[in-house]
Amino acid sequence: xxxxxxxxTALASLVQRQQALATERADLDATRDAAFADIxxxxxxxxxxxxxxxxELPADLVTLYxxxxxxxxxxxxxxxxxxxxxxxxxxxxxxxxxxxxxxAADAVVRCENCRRILVRTAESGL
Length: 126
Hints:
The chain has 2 domains: 56 residues; 66 residues, no CATH class. It is mainly α. A hairpin with a 2-residue loop joins strand 1 and strand 2. It has 3 helices and 3 strands; from the N terminus they run ααββαβ. The relative contact order is 0.10. The protein starts with a helix and ends in a 6-residue tail after the last strand.
């Protein structure tokens, strides 16, 4: 009889734990679903912003960017910072740097290593 009571107590404890875990899982599922909804909403907003910005750029530049982005882990352009491409994290060779330095401000320049479009700023080290 005592053994039966111990088993009943253990079973009741397990049932209670199972219910607690089911509640916790439902809460976690709800949190996950809310996070996914936030991500989807942000992606929709960003997509609209991207379309608006892309419409102001030359079509051939947007096409080039999209092509590079498709083959470069989703990153079509990278900042040139301190003579280093932020896409592949390699420092540009002297000749590459001179070519970038002497190119027109509105020229599209690309990293020789990863082929991403280089975005020049005051931090470029030119």
